[in-house]
Amino acid sequence: MKTLVYLIIGTFFGVIMYKSEAASWFRIYEMFEFGSFHMYGIILSAIAVGATGIWLIKRFNIKTLGGNDMHLKPKNKSFSRYAFGGILFGLGWALAGACPGPMYVLTGAGYFSIIIVVASAVLGTFVYGLLRHKLPH
Amino acid sequence: MNWIYDPWPWYVSGPLIALTMFALLFVGKQFGMSSNLRTICTISGGHKAADFFKFNWKKERWNLVVMAGAILGGFLASQYLSDNTVEINPEVAQKLETYGINSANEAYLPTEIFSMEALSDPKVLAILIVGGFLVGFGARYAGGCTSGHAISGISNLQVPSMIAAAGFFVGGLIMIHFIYPLIF
């Protein structure tokens, strides 16, 4: 039953990514060229609604459907890992024109080449796991 | 019936992405797509190579199901809800033509990079491999991607996520404005 709920949430998300064109290489390129407000509007309105909702959740101490606290743990404080990791991620995001969510969505849309991107992303994650102790965090 | 195929405007899409995040919060989970890449590493035997992959992946199975849903959503949307073209700013499309990419307004992804025929070009193959690698490496290094940091983390007003999202943007700008002119 719970599995079905996760599948529905994921499907909903996949349709949004595709229909909003956030999964399109062209939209990512256009965003970094400052050619349209579209992608900025998506990200900023998601944050505006998200921040308002999370403020309400905290303000009224709203629980999960199971009655537990929500997963809103603060991230560890640091600068270098977020800055270096973030920049590397951004370079890849603009080069492949896709971040992880859209990669899965495009796999479903039948773009064979995206499977190469996903496999490389798994490899990148693996290499990070190997080198983690040698990197500034 | 053409409206079914029209793209959704940003003011519909953005709030729906926030709704995805809330749906996951309400069932006791959190929104983060790149964590699945780590789980896949563990399932593939990565736990033998590094401690980073030693965790109980069965606890993350729910997120793999979300990922499967995203794949299904991509299939449904591309098959039934889209004409699979993306219109962009004409000036940006013109600039892409100078890079040899002429499929703007005609395709969802540039055929010059994502078609089967393009794979025989070593440069295209390198773009796909290096791009994917950096996304996977950078997402785990930064502890999250666009969904975990830019949407969830900033919505929760977390400074680390703001640093990471600024990094995403700096990296993207460097790639498009300094590296693209060198590779295209």
Give a brief rundown of this model.
With 137 residues, chain A is an all-alpha fold.
Structural class of chain B: mainly alpha
Assign an overall shape of chain A.
globular
Tally the helices of chain A: 6
Element order, helices and strands of chain B? HHHHHHHH
Question: What percent of residues of chain B are in strands?
Answer: under 5%
Describe it.
The complex is a heterodimer of chains A (137) and B (184). Chain A is mainly α. Chain A contains six helices and no strands. In chain A, helix 5 runs antiparallel to helix 6. The termini of chain A are far apart. Chain B has 184 residues and is an all-alpha fold. Helices cover 62% and strands 0% of the residues of chain B. The termini of chain B are far apart. The model of chain B has no long low-confidence stretch (mean pLDDT 96). The interface between A and B is large, with 114 and 125 residues.
Please name the defining characteristics of this protein:
heterodimer, A: 137 residues, mainly alpha, 69% helix, globular, B: 184 residues
